[in-house]
Amino acid sequence: MSSRQLPHAAVKIRKAIPVTIVTGFLGSGKTTAILDILKSGGPDSRAAVVVNEWGQVALDGAIVSGEYPAIQVREISGGCICCGAGADLERTVSEILDRVKPDRIIVEPSGVAKPGDIMDTLRSFEMSGRVVFDPVVCIVDPARFTQARYIEMPVFRDQVESAEILVANRCDLVERDIVDAFFEKAHALYPPKLAVYATSFGKFPRSFLQAASHEMRSSMPEHRGERPPRCRLDDHESLSQAGWTWSPRTVFSESKLTNILRNEAGRADPVIERAKAVFHTDRGWFLMEIASGAFHQRPIQYRAQNKCQFIADRRRGTDFPALKKALDACIWTDETRLSASPGPGDGAKRKNELEKKRNVEQGGAEQ
Fold first, then answer.
1. Gap between the Cα atoms of 232 and 111, Å rounded
2. Which of the following CATH numbers is that of domain 231-346: 3.40.630.30, 3.20.20.70, 3.90.1150.10, 3.30.1220.10?
3. Half-sphere exposure of residue 45, counting CA atoms within 13 Å on the CB side?
4. Which residues contact 27 (CB under 8 A, 6 or more apart)?
5. In angstroms, what CA-CA distances link 341 with 11, 123, 127, 349, 350?
6. Is the pTM of this model over 0.90?
7. What's the pLDDT tens digit per position in 316-364?
8. Nearest CA to 30 among 165, 169, 159, 136?
9. What residue spans define the domains of the chain?
10. Distance between CA 118 and CA 124 in Å, rounded?
């Protein structure tokens, strides 16, 4: 009997679709910036735009559609996609991926939305390899950014802290000293930004976004621990410092981290002079700090990486390896171990799984 060799079945590799979140406070110029990004995409671009408006009447989606009729625009109005309309966002993105098959998705949240919560809602799509997050872009009015009353406003602060790229727009309307003050304050932020830019009319080069995306991904630790977290250790004349990063999917125990950092801050003869950290914990993302012998923490919308930086008195011979080991012992789980099949409602399911796991472990500890 003769035999014949069957051709190998073609294996179609699905490419992760970049998702760019362009956030910013009310009236900062987000829609104008998105129009400029779309313009630089070229005639063959198959971008899709998700526009969220807090009010009942949607206008920004109509502006984008009017400028670029070929672009697929989906509007979600009557609530923020970071909270009440989160399920609508999951359904919309799922439909875009299945039917539109875009080469990019741009999300314009409402001016009062929290970008970190939006990323949490879409995390299941990233975990399954269907999307990859670009650096979050935050558009700000430099005049507002330099006013204490805006920086102290929680929603404004959340948007600024969530961003890896910070863009001051409408710079043609302010004096040079306002722009200089913007750069000074922007470069003092923690976590530090990948890029800070000043512009007018929402314009900034597409290459600028691409370069920041490459830098973010090339510095990202692997999800599953194939590559160890990076350590930076430099000595100064009297101070030494060390810092580490972990994947954003690594989840730490908030209570264990708090105990370690409170104990370090409360020592009668302190060794750690300053510490800044952002951790993804079983209770959410937190900014944790040690300053002037006191420990502070608060929720934060940043989602790019777990990271920490410690500055210590060099003369006391700080045992940074032991500190690193203690932090690693606080790792609670890796989200890749939880269900990752994307679909409507999976963001909420993943949060429920984390909550259930935390409750089970706390119940066991109390017995």
1. 37
2. 3.30.1220.10
3. 19
4. 111, 141
5. 20, 10, 8, 10, 10
6. no
7. 777 899 999 999 999 987 664 444 444 555 555 555 665 665 665 555 5
8. 169
9. 17-218, 231-346
10. 12
